[in-house]
Specification:
- This protein has about 300 residues and is an alpha+beta fold.
- The protein has two domains: about 5-85; about 105-290, no CATH class.
- It is built from ten helices and six strands.
- It has helices at about 5-15, 105-120, 130-155, 160-165, 180-185, 185-195, 205-215, 225-240, 260-290, 295-300, and strands at about 15-25, 30-40, 45-50, 60-65, 70-75, 85.
- The chain has a three-stranded antiparallel β-sheet with strand order 2-1-6, covered by helices on one side.
- A hairpin with a 2-residue loop joins strand 4 (about 60-65) and strand 5 (about 70-75).
- Helix 3 (about 130-155) packs across helix 4 (about 160-165) and helix 3 (about 130-155) packs antiparallel against helix 6.
- The longest helix has about 30 residues, at about 260-290.
Length: about 300
């Protein structure tokens, strides 16, 4: 039997790594992206990734490879397509998350008003400005806080949302004993909360998938160019936070100018509004579904 340290190392090595995969669809040119788990005990892994174009059903087989703690990807059907694979930052996952703030949308709107005032007051015309990169990172922090509080808050308050979220990776294969349920009747709620708190809400494809799963509608804009701009901004945010504004090839991002910041602010506000609308519509639908047949007839104007 191995020592305790050997067992811990073996368990750690088998932990899955969360990565974000993105590429342009070879057929329609639309951004395709997904939040995936790379098994910790494999060096080669295959996943199916769907195009994010709501008008199509294109799906692609992506082969992921690990070498020296770095990850790469390739489309099995179109090996010439460039596939971006980035590890998601989970460095803060081991601290105790606070409960979500109530009134998340109001907090978001107040923060966005202040952010736009700062864009007008301190941003610079140059797209390579460090001030602009700071404002860009702050925008993502505002959006991440809102998405986290809004989604986790809705999940904790509504068992039907929890039921939908059980379809997510990390939850759909969970098995719980009856004894565990007896000891903790809120075990499902706690598991949903813990899983959501461990996710990176600056991953917009992940947030979009969660919203579509939990509330029945995506929140990314339908406009192809806007969606593409948002998808590219995820890696740009990573470069600004972790590489001082340089991409992995050492090239400086020089397009974060005032117009870019304002456009991104508008897109984040649109996603937040879409999430609010989706949560409201889902709540209304659940209310109507729970009505007695005679009450449904009264609500619909029937006799």
């Amino acid at each position: 039997m191995g020592s305790m340290s050997e067992l811990m190392i073996e368990r750690w090595a088998a932990e899955p790594v969360h990565v974000e995969v993105s590429f342009l669809c070879p057929i329609c040119g639309h951004p395709s992206a997904a939040f995936l788990e790379f098994p910790g005990d494999e060096d080669d892994h295959i996943e199916e990734v769907s195009c994010l174009n709501p008008e199509t059903d294109h799906e692609w087989t992506v082969r992921l490879r690990k070498k020296d703690e770095s990850y790469s990807g390739q489309l099995e059907q179109h090996r010439e397509v460039k596939v971006s694979v980035s590890m998601l930052d989970t460095s803060d996952d081991d601290w105790d998350e606070p409960l979500p703030e109530p009134g998340a949308y109001g907090i978001f709107l107040d923060a966005m008003r202040e952010w736009r005032a700062n864009v007008s007051a301190i941003s610079e015309p140059s797209g390579a400005s460090s001030r602009n990169r700071m404002l860009f990172g702050t925008l993502y922090s505002i959006g991440e806080a809102y998405f986290s509080d809004a989604i986790i808050g809705a999940a904790l308050a509504d068992t039907s949302v929890q039921r939908h979220l059980l379809k997510l990776d990390g939850l759909k294969d969970k098995q719980v004993s009856l004894e565990t349920i007896l000891d903790n009747p809120d075990i499902v709620r706690e598991m949903v909360k813990t899983t959501l708190q461990g996710l990176s809400f600056h991953s917009l494809t992940l947030v979009n998938r969660i919203c579509e799963t939990a509330f029945g509608k995506p929140i990314l804009p339908r406009d192809k160019d806007d969606r593409s701009l948002l998808m590219r901004s995820v890696n740009k945010r990573h470069d600004c936070v972790h590489r001082n504004g340089n991409d992995k090839d050492g090239n400086k991002h020089t397009d974060i100018d005032q117009d870019y910041l304002r456009k991104m602010g508008t897109l984040f506000e649109g996603m937040a509004q879409s999430l609010e609308d989706s949560m409201r519509d889902a709540k209304v639908k659940r209310f109507f579904d729970d009505l007695r047949p005679e009450d449904k007839r009264l609500c619909s104007g029937g006799a």
